[in-house]
Design a protein that fits this description.
Blueprint: H1 2-20, E1 21-27, E2 33-39, H2 44-54, E3 63-69, E4 74-77, H3 84-89, E5 97-103, H4 109-112, H5 114-117, E6 123-125, H6 138-143, E7 149-158, E8 165-173, E9 176-180, E10 191-195, E11 200-205, H7 208-212, E12 218-224, E13 234-238, H8 241-256, H9 258-273, E14 287-288, E15 295-296, H10 300-324, H11 330-339, H12 353-363, E16 369-374, E17 382-388, E18 391-402, E19 405-409, H13 420-429, E20 440-441
Parallel strand pairs: 1-5, 16-20
Antiparallel strand pairs: 1-2, 3-4, 3-5, 4-11, 6-7, 7-8, 7-13, 8-9, 9-10, 11-12, 12-13, 14-15, 16-17, 17-18, 18-19
């Protein structure tokens, strides 16, 4: 009788085990994929941690899971706390929907630099605070359930069941997104409901002009979790990247509120508890040890020349040591210096200008996101692609020949580097001729 009872329970135990563990497939940017077994209550952050460990990545808290819906031409970054299986359960069976694992440096940047994300002309404060709020407290008003900044401005909206787009004045409040049917009037009788976010998410539209005939490429949309058809999307389009980023960020904050702040501070709290000490670049000081007493170098131009000279002397010593051990001679070391950058994660080889734009935009349009690549117009030169003020700028790195020695320079030879690694190291600590320091390199991994 006991044996009968146990065998009767076995199917139920198997079902429970199947429910607890699920197999998901995750893609990297080069479209390699890996299937992993995860618990049914796994979060996006859990999956990222798993792939960080499996691929021996440096965990800088920027790794993110993206939901990519190819049939709709849209994608969004999953919030760290979201349950992955809930997201997957909303996918239609016959569609090409994927999870991507990649960097997203802009994920929580609005907590650090809110004014970069919320320009003055798009923000006003709701009546509950009588219009009075310090800009430093802008994010706090989003997180506080009793207050909310009002986001407003013009957007293009695709008209339902039509191919045409109409430009209207939109207003985002805690109760939802509205548009005015009378100019810029915010009177209740002139505001028409457009969408709310209780059971919807905001996505970036990847090819707004091509797929939907949008007036610009800065498309985004509000998609219900139950919707799987393109005709059910509430499509919007901004005139520039800053405007689109402002709307999307505000919608994320309205939907998830304090949970986003918890996601942001959680890894930093873990770091404080860790015995490992992190050194900020701001704590690095230039010192002069040449005299009897050491001194702090405060003159910026002197700091620049000392850093370059120190780097050059270090490289010369390295080359000398190699030559002394029967390894590359001076002539051969210049060849070595040319190729040494190839293995660096920030170097992307024969990447086109358009592809570099796409890669940087995917990994976060914040100041200092960068990559290096071969120049397509001049095979002997390289290009530094750098994001600044939500725009991507390109700087040519030119070879400089000085009495048979090859150097690289961004400023017509005034500041010279023996190889690209030294150049990147320098501009990570010094702005120099660039609009900002190099902060985050675009990384591609193979799963």
């Amino acid at each position: 009788q006991m044996i009968t009872n146990v065998s009767h329970c076995l199917p139920e135990m198997v079902v429970n085990l199947m429910f607890l563990l699920q197999v998901i497939k995750v893609y990297s940017e080069d479209n390699t994929s890996k299937a992993v077994e995860v618990p049914s209550d796994v979060t996006a952050q859990d999956v990222c941690q798993l792939f960080v460990l499996k691929n021996h990545c440096i965990d800088d808290h920027a790794w993110t899971l993206f939901e990519h819906l190819s049939h709709l031409g849209i994608e969004r970054a999953l919030e760290d706390h979201e349950y992955v299986m809930e997201v997957l359960s909303s996918w239609a069976m016959d569609t090409d929907s994927r999870l991507y694992f990649r960097k997203n440096y802009a994920k929580y940047e609005f907590f650090r630099k809110p004014l970069d994300f919320f320009p003055d002309h798009m923000v006003s404060i709701s009546s509950e605070t009588n219009g009075m709020v310090d800009h430093c407290d802008l994010i706090q008003t989003f997180l506080n359930s009793s207050t909310c900044p009002e986001i407003h401005g013009y957007l293009h909206a695709k008209e339902q069941s039509r191919k045409s787009w109409k430009k209207s004045y939109f207003v985002l409040r805690r109760s939802g997104l509205y548009f005015s049917n009378k100019g810029t009037s915010k009177e209740p009788r002139h505001l028409q409901f457009f969408a709310d976010f209780s059971d919807s998410d905001v996505y970036t539209v990847l090819a707004a002009k091509k797929l939907h005939g949008a007036p610009t490429e800065f498309g985004f949309c509000v998609k219900s979790t139950k919707c799987s058809s393109a005709r059910d999307l509430k499509l919007l389009c901004a005139d520039d990247e800053q405007t689109r980023t402002c709307w999307i960020t505000a919608m994320r904050l309205l939907k998830f509120g304090m949970q986003l702040y918890q996601n942001f501070i959680q890894p930093h709290q873990k770091q404080k508890a860790s015995p490992m000490r992190s050194i900020s670049e701001n704590s690095l000081v230039a010192m002069d040890f040449s005299g009897q007493k050491s001194r702090v170098i405060e003159n910026p131009s002197e700091v620049l020349s000392v850093a370059v000279e120190e780097g050059l002397s270090w490289r010369r010593k390295s080359c000398h040591r190699l030559s002394g051990h029967g390894s590359p001679s001076t002539a051969q070391s210049s060849v070595l210096n040319i190729a040494i950058h190839v293995a660096q994660p920030w170097f992307h080889g024969k990447l086109s200008r358009e592809e570099s734009h796409r890669l940087i935009a995917q990994q976060g349009l914040i100041d200092g996101v960068f990559l290096l690549r071969d120049s397509q117009s001049n095979p002997k030169t390289f290009v530094l692609s750098l994001c600044y003020m939500q725009k991507i700028k390109h700087f040519q790195i030119l070879p400089v020949d000085d009495e048979g020695e090859l150097f690289y320079s961004l400023d017509d030879g005034q500041t010279r580097f023996t190889d690209l690694i030294q150049l990147v190291d320098f501009y990570q600590l010094n702005r120099g001729v660039l609009p900002c320091k190099l902060r985050h390199h675009c990384a591609r991994i193979t799963l």
